[in-house]
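Anyone able to model this chain together with magnesium ion?
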Amino acid sequence: MTRPPGAIIGAMSPPRRHTRVLHISGPEDIAAAVSEAAAVLRAGGLVAFPTETVYGLGANALDDAAVASIFAAKERAADDPLIVHITGLAALGDVASACPPLALRLAAHFWPGPLTLVLPRSPRVAAAVSAGLETVAVRVPSHPLARAILEAAGLPIAAPSANRFTRASATTAAHVLEDLDGRIDLVIDGGPAEAGIESTVVAIDGPNRVVLLRAGAITREQLAAALGPGVEITAAGPREKRSPGMMAKHYAPRTRLVYIAGSADSARARLFAEAAGAIQRDQRVALLISAEDAAALAPGHGYTVETLGPEDDPQAIAHQLFAALRTIDHAGADVIFARSPAPSGLGAAIHDRLSRAATEAIVL
Ligand code: TXA
Ligand code: MG
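re: yes, here you go
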């Protein structure tokens, strides 16, 4: 079946499923949850599970129907390919037909962990996983529950973030249910995802060039250190195959979000001025800001405030980011003003997510 680019499979809303939740409260819960998750996956079902980045919505990557149901549950555009999760390098041959030397170097350095490699695809992988591309995105998660589920299922598992298409990624089981209750079979609740931001996605272009398709939990600086001198890391240009996770509208709250980017002092001053102006126009205003911004607010300001964390702790900010976006979206505001720390290191991924969540951006 051919579809126009961007067509949504199952846009009418998918068939209703009963969604069960298994909570991991202690080590004694793990074995039963893992074997249940594996059984559902082997039967072609949909299981949301925690990874070290965000929650994934998993299905058997070798099963066309199971993969199609991921797209239906998320209402995901058919031209947005999925990441396949495997247990380790030894299983790479099941999903990829080749692994160039630079990819091998990166895998050896960062797997298990939040790095996704785009490689030539094996024909065994369900075609919908790759959304018509000749490549497949692969990663080896480090989260113990994710690893145990992959081992027990004995299958490569396609798993996008476990949220509705274009919404904030899910970092807790509650977020998964907010978006997907009644659309998937099982949620494994292993507590909040640690990194809070998705994996870094890279492609290899020849012997000396790595293309950064999506900024993520592994920073550009970490990639450069692992690759050493002589290897160029470039951002995806127009000649690269589009990585649809890089589309403009993504992670978007329902509330209008104005993102203000710039150096800390000028962006903070502009954010406070914009917020004061909106209050004067009788708007309900919410702020998504750093701990330092919150401390600088005048008493009795009248804003709803969601604090992301200290400016010098991008890990804390990344951990909170998607949860904070969801919370502030529920605050009943007319407008959200947001600011993020400097876009270096992990700050690059935070800046990327906020600029794509934004209805409009003010760049100073
Ligand atoms: O951390 C993560 O990567 C999480 C967890 C669950 O593993 N998964 C995740 O999946 O973020 P998703 O579907 O939300 O994002 C997948 C990203 C998108 O940006 C997509 O365009 C890109 O990977 N991607 C997948 N396959 C690709 C391919 N063959 N070529 C280029 N980009 C690809
Ligand atoms: Mg996603």
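The chain has ten helices and 16 strands.
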